[in-house]
């Protein structure tokens, strides 16, 4: 069958997402008109997704270096040193649009993709996380989306046997037409056995392993592919279906092969499949590549070169082997019943040359294509500052009533309904399950553990992108710190609207600035990340959502802290300064129906100082429980500790403070800790220049406010645990 | 009245379950099984008395609940 | 005690059970590949949790036809101790070593959480370290753990004292509310007639280490070591 | 040659999925659905040329793998 060869019209070029200027550059590089296969390759290589053309300029400003960094951005995942010759490998990635179209499969394949990014580097995945944003709970599609996304994440992660130990879930009408599904994987590898997506050595075989290639996910070019099968009445679904069983086999087979020294380079086939994997490997290694598509295992008859190169079928990997090692490698993949095919070899031509059916269907220069990838400095405008909001401008509600409302609101209620659908214990190393500050997995066979978290407060970012960017990093830092672990590095997932709008671009620029400042101040460089733009429907953009995935190390598991109150009659100490900042708080939104004011400012020096102090307390064995303060403020954090420990507390707010602001303000850089006595902690705090306040004592069946109401823990728990299950079981 | 609904994956959509079953059959020594596609069947017991109306209703059930029309086709038999 | 852990494609608790067995016995179990035709001479054969063959078709159905299962069945019939946990239980059911069937959870959702179990029959090599009526906590993690057996079958299990565990509440009461998946009569684990084969949905190997939140599971492995040493 | 196999739960075996669907349909406002039973369907592509032999073979596949005859019934259509 010969390759379809339509005329390359302006319409076809536009349909491939290339603008006139970009197409002119294509013509210049080639010195001729591309054929359809080549056009398809340019289209995906220069897509926003693969080229980061709108974001690159700003991503470059993020700090990526520190002594613990082994590999920063630019590879499949970031790598950091965790001591004893071991490394943690991690990254986060979005699958937003596919999850909106088909929530189960979209979310499932998102998990599959990020897992491959991590085990591609030679790491065994040890933890999954997920950051989810849905629309208004009252929106008719929300329930269906939540149900499908959660089932899909579980369906995939549970089957491959990687525990899902942490995440976040938010609801906001701005996500009605564009939900966010961000998945993160953390793996562990030997620090001197990391594999890179770099292919060199002319003559080395290029090998395809995993599932067969089908026509999944060939988008961007609907018209072009429709013309290939005029007899098909059915519109081809572009949805990719995941096969976690095959992924599990692929993990085991790849790790088994990587334990030998047969592999030169390896790369998963993610977005843009065979095209980007072969291109990236060759380009990073300064090689050329010759592929023969007749050897690619296919699932369907009559697939064209265009389809094979652009297919996004899941659970596939491309690797370059040392010459003569093919048989050894094949035996491993045979053992695991996976397809294994030699599909080409490296060359020294610097070109990508593709054959199919005896014809040459593509001949592209690799470096010019990679180097000439567009990079834009898009116009941007900064977000105007919100007018100040003081406590006396915000109505004071009864604290008991306010707590009851907040603890059951969609953004603060228990996520048990979500994480009980995830196997969060497989591997038998989960030392902190979901529901605390960070998930924690023991590094297998050792006494140390990784603390992992994902955080972002999009409403803060909308109100002030710089402060919001700082806050996301700071909250991840606090969640890790609260377990006793040392935060080491972050990954990010930048979810924004249309970057061609200066207002949206300004949010991106501001968030990068804030994140960069926080990463520098807190010593947590960015080692990997992902950008998802154009999350916009009609005129509605999502809230700017730079989700931060943080990883920290606890080097001695006997020094771990958890949020639960441990005993009655212990002192509760509040670390950090409380000003009662109500702007952009959940109190303001849930009780007053307002989303205004500036977000709480983030004092990065205080974050660092207080974080270091809290970690020292934990390491010194001074505290019995620890929890950071975030959404909902002090009383919410206190209630969470009380529920986890199944005992109440009696507290005494300072007399001069306005109770609603003091109890529900969202000031940053704060923690609650418990200890048999407050005295030593207060003294140590004073010595360290850290604000500390003896808040009260644990015990009893209720939360008692001095001179105020007593709030039954049982009622708080019922409200907290009740909202999500009852929302999900309601009709419609 | 009874209705029977078949829900099958659209052509081209990966059917990992079918793939696994095909493999297992060949391991059990059943040769010549060239493909396996899996699907679901729902048998509904309806109080309807009118065939055409019942079909109409079942079609709505398929669209709204029984099938995921993004990746699945359905087929209705009445009676 | 020398143990063997069978590894099916898609098993994912194989390492977890091996760790728990080694901790109890001091001996590293043999990891036996499903394509092998024989299991080495051992005191205990463990079928681990996971998603053998992706749980496609029916959980455990394809794995039950693995080459190695012929030998596992023969050994079980000769009296070797066989422990199937979660997916391992499903494989034992599908291979006919234990009666009944495991259906989708009543909620149709996968569930991962700690549950209470009442030890109903402690007269076995697996449960000798527990007391009858004792309440223990093990995690469950499954989508298809809804045990089904017809009335006659259930009566037979009860008459022959072959019910190892039932789901119970915090007070140790076997109530419908304590049933996480819809299993007939809250059944969580059963023996064969000779009680050398135990299949159960909950995971004792996940709570055999205090750092993971409890040690109730360790008594099962310690008891096995004592009985099979 | 094609074969189609239906596998359904035996009467008396609880069908949690059928029950849930029935409930969901009534929540969606579809009245008069008195029962829902769910099952699986397998479409096999066979190289066989003889109908009777194919049926015989498919029956063995059902007994050995496709159905769990403790709790399920099966039904074979050839052609
Ligand atoms: N989608 C999810 N998957 C797994 N765990 C989740 C998910 N969403 C929330 N959690 C867990 O629930 C707990 C509360 O989440 P959150 O309120 O976001 O915590 P924090 O305010 O400390 O960041 C955390 O332990 C978190 O990991
Ligand atoms: Mg926290």
UniProtKB/TrEMBL annotation, chain A:
Keyword entries, A-Z: ATP-binding, Cytoplasm, Ligase, Magnesium, Metal-binding, Nucleotide-binding, Purine biosynthesis
Location (main, coarse): cytoplasm
CDD domains per UniProt: PurL_repeat1, PurL_repeat2
UniProt domain PurM-like N-terminal: residue ranges: 74-189, 435-553
Organism domain of life: Bacteria
Every Phosphoribosylformylglycinamidine synthase linker domain range: 15-53
Residues binding Mg(2+) 2, per UniProt: 117, 268
Reactions performed catalytically: N(2)-formyl-N(1)-(5-phospho-beta-D-ribosyl)glycinamide + L-glutamine + ATP + H2O = 2-formamido-N(1)-(5-O-phospho-beta-D-ribosyl)acetamidine + L-glutamate + ADP + phosphate + H(+)
Residues noted as binding substrate in the record, renumbered to the chain: 94-97, 116, 240, 312-314, 532
Residues that, per the record, bind ATP: 52, 91, 492, 529
Enzyme class (EC, first level): ligase
Active site positions, chain numbering: 49, 95
InterPro entries named in the record: PRibForGlyAmidine_synth_PurL (IPR010074), PurL_linker (IPR041609), PurM-like_C_dom (IPR010918), PurM-like_C_sf (IPR036676), PurM-like_N (IPR016188), PurM-like_N_sf (IPR036921)
Pathway where this protein functions: Purine metabolism; IMP biosynthesis via de novo pathway; 5-amino-1-(5-phospho-D-ribosyl)imidazole from N(2)-formyl-N(1)-(5-phospho-D-ribosyl)glycinamide: step 1/2
Keyword Cytoplasm: yes
Subunit structure: Monomer. Part of the FGAM synthase complex composed of 1 PurL, 1 PurQ and 2 PurS subunits.
Stated role: Part of the phosphoribosylformylglycinamidine synthase complex involved in the purines biosynthetic pathway. Catalyzes the ATP-dependent conversion of formylglycinamide ribonucleotide (FGAR) and glutamine to yield formylglycinamidine ribonucleotide (FGAM) and glutamate. The FGAM synthase complex is composed of three subunits. PurQ produces an ammonia molecule by converting glutamine to glutamate. PurL transfers the ammonia molecule to FGAR to form FGAM in an ATP-dependent manner.
HAMAP family: PurL_2 (MF_00420)
Protein name according to UniProt: Phosphoribosylformylglycinamidine synthase subunit PurL
Organism of this sequence: Rhodovibrio sodomensis
Lineage: Bacteria, Pseudomonadati, Pseudomonadota, Alphaproteobacteria, Rhodospirillales
Gene: purL
TrEMBL record, chains B, D:
Classification via Pfam families: PurS
Chief location of this protein within or outside the cell: cytoplasm
Keywords: ATP-binding, Cytoplasm, Ligase, Nucleotide-binding, Purine biosynthesis
Biological function: Part of the phosphoribosylformylglycinamidine synthase complex involved in the purines biosynthetic pathway. Catalyzes the ATP-dependent conversion of formylglycinamide ribonucleotide (FGAR) and glutamine to yield formylglycinamidine ribonucleotide (FGAM) and glutamate. The FGAM synthase complex is composed of three subunits. PurQ produces an ammonia molecule by converting glutamine to glutamate. PurL transfers the ammonia molecule to FGAR to form FGAM in an ATP-dependent manner.
Summary of subunit composition and partner proteins: Part of the FGAM synthase complex composed of 1 PurL, 1 PurQ and 2 PurS subunits.
UniProt similarity note: Belongs to the PurS family.
NCBIfam families with a match to the protein in the record: phosphoribosylformylglycinamidine synthase subunit PurS, PRK05974.1
Name of the featured protein: Phosphoribosylformylglycinamidine synthase subunit PurS
Organism placement in taxonomy: Bacteria, Pseudomonadati, Pseudomonadota, Alphaproteobacteria, Rhodospirillales
Automatic annotation (TrEMBL), chain C:
CDD domains (alphabetical): GATase1_FGAR_AT (cd01740)
Catalytic activity annotation: N(2)-formyl-N(1)-(5-phospho-beta-D-ribosyl)glycinamide + L-glutamine + ATP + H2O = 2-formamido-N(1)-(5-O-phospho-beta-D-ribosyl)acetamidine + L-glutamate + ADP + phosphate + H(+); L-glutamine + H2O = L-glutamate + NH4(+)
Record EC number: 6.3.5.3, 3.5.1.2
Matches recorded under InterPro entries: Class_I_gatase-like (IPR029062), PRibForGlyAmidine_synth_PurQ (IPR010075)
Pfam families in the cross-refs: GATase_5
Keywords: ATP-binding, Cytoplasm, Glutamine amidotransferase, Hydrolase, Ligase, Nucleotide-binding, Purine biosynthesis
Catalytic machinery residues: 86, 203, 205
Pathway listed: Purine metabolism; IMP biosynthesis via de novo pathway; 5-amino-1-(5-phospho-D-ribosyl)imidazole from N(2)-formyl-N(1)-(5-phospho-D-ribosyl)glycinamide: step 1/2
SUPFAM superfamilies: Class I glutamine amidotransferase-like
Alphabetized NCBIfam families for the sequence: FGAM_synth_I (TIGR01737), PRK03619.1 (NF002957)
Role summary: Part of the phosphoribosylformylglycinamidine synthase complex involved in the purines biosynthetic pathway. Catalyzes the ATP-dependent conversion of formylglycinamide ribonucleotide (FGAR) and glutamine to yield formylglycinamidine ribonucleotide (FGAM) and glutamate. The FGAM synthase complex is composed of three subunits. PurQ produces an ammonia molecule by converting glutamine to glutamate. PurL transfers the ammonia molecule to FGAR to form FGAM in an ATP-dependent manner.
Official protein name in the record: Phosphoribosylformylglycinamidine synthase subunit PurQ
Gene designation: purQ
């Amino acid at each position: 069958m010969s390759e379809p060869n339509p005329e390359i019209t302006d319409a076809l070029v536009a349909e491939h997402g290339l603008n006139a200027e970009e197409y002119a550059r294509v013509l210049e590089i080639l010195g001729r008109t591309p054929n359809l296969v080549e056009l398809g390759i340019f289209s995906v290589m220069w897509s926003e997704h693969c080229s980061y053309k709108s974001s690159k300029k700003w991503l470059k400003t993020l700090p990526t270096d520190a002594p613990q960094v082994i590999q920063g951005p630019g590879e499949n995942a970031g790598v950091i040193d965790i001591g004893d010759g071991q490394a943690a490998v991690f990254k986060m990635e979005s699958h937003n649009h596919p999850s909106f179209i088909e929530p189960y499969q979209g979310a499932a394949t998102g998990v599959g993709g990020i897992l491959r990014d991590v085990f591609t580097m030679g790491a065994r995945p040890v933890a999954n996380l997920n950051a989810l944003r849905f629309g208004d709970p009252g929106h008719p599609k929300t329930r269906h989306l939540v149900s499908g996304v959660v089932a899909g994440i579980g369906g995939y992660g549970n089957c491959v046997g990687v525990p899902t130990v942490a995440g976040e879930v938010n609801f906001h009408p701005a996500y009605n037409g564009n939900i966010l599904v961000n998945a993160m994987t953390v793996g562990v590898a030997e620090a001197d056995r990391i594999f890179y997506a770099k292919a060199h050595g002319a003559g080395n075989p290029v090998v395809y392993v995993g599932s067969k290639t089908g026509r999944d996910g060939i988008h961007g070019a609907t018209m072009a592919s429709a013309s290939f099968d005029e007899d098909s009445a059915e519109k081809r679904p572009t949805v990719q279906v995941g096969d976690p069983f095959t992924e599990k086999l692929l993990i085991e087979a790849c790790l088994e092969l990587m334990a030998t020294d047969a592999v030169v380079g390896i790369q998963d086939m993610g977005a843009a499949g065979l095209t980007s994997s072969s291109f990236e490997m060759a380009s990073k290694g300064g090689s050329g590549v010759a592929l023969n598509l007749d050897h690619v295992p296919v699932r369907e008859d009559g697939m064209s070169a265009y389809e094979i190169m652009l297919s996004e079928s899941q659970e596939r990997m491309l690797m370059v082997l040392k010459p003569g090692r093919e048989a050894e490698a094949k035996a491993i993949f045979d053992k695991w019943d996976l397809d294994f095919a030699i599909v080409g070899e490296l060359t020294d031509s610097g070109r990508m040359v593709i054959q199919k059916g005896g014809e040459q269907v593509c001949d592209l220069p690799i470096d010019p294509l990679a180097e000439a990838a567009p990079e834009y400095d898009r116009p941007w405008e900064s977000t105007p500052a919100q007018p100040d909001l003081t406590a006396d401008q915000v109505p004071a509600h009864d604290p008991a009533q306010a707590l009851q409302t907040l603890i059951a609101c969609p953004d603060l209620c228990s996520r048990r309904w979500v994480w009980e659908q995830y196997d969060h214990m497989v591997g038998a190393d989960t030392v902190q399950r979901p529901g605390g500050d960070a998930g924690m997995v023991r590094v297998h066979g050792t006494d140390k553990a990784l603390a992992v978290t994902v955080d972002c407060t999009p409403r803060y970012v909308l109100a002030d992108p710089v402060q919001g960017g700082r806050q996301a990093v700071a909250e991840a830092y606090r969640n890790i710190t609260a377990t006793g672990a040392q935060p080491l590095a972050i990954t990010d997932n930048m979810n924004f609207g249309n970057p061609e709008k200066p207002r949206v671009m300004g949010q991106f620029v501001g968030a990068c600035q804030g994140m960069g400042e926080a990463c520098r101040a807190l010593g947590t460089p960015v080692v990997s990340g992902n950008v998802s733009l154009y999350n916009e429907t009609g005129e509605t953009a999502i809230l700017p959502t730079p989700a931060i995935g943080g990883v920290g190390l606890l080097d001695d598991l006997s020094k771990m802290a958890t949020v639960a109150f441990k005993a009655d009659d212990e002192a509760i100490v509040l670390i950090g300064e409380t000003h009662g900042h109500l702007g952009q708080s959940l109190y303001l939104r849930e009780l007053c129906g307002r989303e205004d004011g500036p977000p709480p400012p983030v004092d990065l020096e205080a974050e660092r100082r207080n974080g270091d102090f809290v970690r020292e307390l934990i390491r010194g064995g001074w505290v019995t429980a620890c929890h950071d303060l975030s959404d909902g403020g002090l009383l919410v954090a206190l209630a969470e500790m009380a529920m986890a420990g199944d005992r109440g507390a009696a507290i005494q707010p300072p007399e001069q403070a306005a109770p609603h602001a003091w109890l529900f303000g969202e000031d940053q850089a704060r923690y609650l800790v418990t200890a048999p006595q407050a005295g030593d902690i207060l003294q140590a705090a004073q010595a360290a220049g850290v604000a500390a306040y003896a808040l009260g004592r644990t015990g009893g069946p209720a939360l008692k406010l001095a001179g105020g109401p007593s709030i039954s823990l049982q009622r708080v728990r019922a409200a907290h645990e009740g909202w999500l299950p009852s929302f999900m079981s309601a009709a419609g | 009245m009874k209705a029977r609904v078949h829900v099958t994956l659209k052509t081209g959509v990966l059917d990992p379950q079918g793939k696994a079953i095909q493999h297992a059959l060949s391991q059990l020594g059943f040769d010549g099984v060239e493909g396996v596609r899996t699907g679901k069947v729902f048998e509904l017991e309806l109080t309807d008395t009118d065939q055409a109306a019942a079909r109409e209703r079942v079609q709505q059930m398929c669209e709204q609940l029984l099938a995921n029309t993004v990746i699945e086709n359905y087929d209705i038999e009445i009676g | 005690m020398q143990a063997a852990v069978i590894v099916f494609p898609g098993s994912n608790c194989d390492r977890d059970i091996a760790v728990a067995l080694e901790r109890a016995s001091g001996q590293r179990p043999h990891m036996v590949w499903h394509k092998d035709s024989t299991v080495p001479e051992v005191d205990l054969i463990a079928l681990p949790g996971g998603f053998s063959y992706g749980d496609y078709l029916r959980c455990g159905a394809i794995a039950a036809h693995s080459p190695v299962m012929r030998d596992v069945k023969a050994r079980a019939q000769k009296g070797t101790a066989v422990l199937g946990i979660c997916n391992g239980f499903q494989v034992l059911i599908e291979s006919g070593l234990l009666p009944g069937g495991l259906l989708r959870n009543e909620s149709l959702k996968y569930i991962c959480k700690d549950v209470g179990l009442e030890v109903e029959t402690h007269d076995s090599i697996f449960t000798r370290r527990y007391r009858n009526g004792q309440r223990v906590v093990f995690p469950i993690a499954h989508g298809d753990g809804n045990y089904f057996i017809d009335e006659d079958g259930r009566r037979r299990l009860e008459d022959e004292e072959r019910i190892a565990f039932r789901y119970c509440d915090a007070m140790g009461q076997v109530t419908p509310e304590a049933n996480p998946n819809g299993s007939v009569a809250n059944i969580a684990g059963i023996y064969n007639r000779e009680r050398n084969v135990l299949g159960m949905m909950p995971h004792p190997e996940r709570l055999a280490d205090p750092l993971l939140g409890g040690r109730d599971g360790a008594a099962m492995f310690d008891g096995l070591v004592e009985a099979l040493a």
